[in-house]
From TrEMBL:
UniProt entry keywords in alphabetical sequence: Membrane, Transmembrane, Transmembrane helix
Species in which this protein is naturally found: Autumnicola lenta
Tagged with keyword Membrane: yes
Protein name: DUF4179 domain-containing protein
Taxonomic superkingdom: Bacteria
Record-annotated membrane-spanning stretches: 48-70
Organism classification: Bacteria, Pseudomonadati, Bacteroidota, Flavobacteriia, Flavobacteriales
Keyword Transmembrane on entry: yes
């Protein structure tokens, strides 16, 4: 039933299916020009500005890429926390000074009884230093990714924890040594 209604609808409509005469396209474009002469002028103006717009866009792209390159180079000079922000610079300085002080204290407390512990701690510190160097490269690649920054701070904290543990063990060894000497004297 539905198909019959559609057939009837198309039967009543008169479609012009004949080909247009020769030169139809040219006559059509002439009529368009006659009706809107300013369109051709607009196209001329657009054609005049097109190279300048392209050059300006290219220069803007070069400035943008150059800025990113120089920003990356400025960050790449050090690649550590100090290059991220002034607050991170203070954090890095705090941790490095604390680590240096604890390393000096460990070196002062070094004795034949604690030599093995100190040697092991220094080997672990070298591993943490190597890991920190990798994190510095990751920071350069990722820009200022917070995950890398947190990992770097965590690395500092691990070093300090390691050194505190070593200092505690050295103190325990010293106490045991003093207690043994006291027992031997009696």
């Amino acid at each position: 039933m539905k198909n019959d209604n559609i057939k009837e609808l198309f039967r009543d409509l008169d479609f012009d299916t004949s080909e247009p005469r020769e030169g139809h396209k040219e006559r059509f474009f002439e009529k368009l020009k006659d009706e809107n002469p300013s369109a051709e002028k607009k196209n001329r103006v657009r054609n005049l500005w097109a190279p300048f717009i392209g050059i300006a866009a290219g220069l803007a792209l070069l400035v943008f890429l150059g800025g990113m390159y120089f920003n990356h180079q400025a960050l790449g000079r050090s690649g550590d926390l100090a290059s991220v922000s002034p607050e991170m610079k203070q954090t890095q300085e705090f941790y490095t000074s604390l680590i240096e002080n604890e390393l000096k204290e460990i070196q002062e407390e070094k004795s034949p009884e604690t030599e093995a512990i100190v040697k092991d701690a220094l080997a672990q510190m070298e591993k943490l230093d190597t890991e920190y160097a990798k994190l510095k490269r990751d920071l350069l690649r990722s820009g200022k990714d917070n995950r890398v920054i947190h990992a770097m701070i965590n690395n500092f904290q691990q070093r300090i924890d390691l050194l505190n543990t070593v200092l505690t063990q050295i103190e325990e060894i010293k106490l045991l040594k003093n207690q043994n000497h006291e027992n031997n004297l009696i």
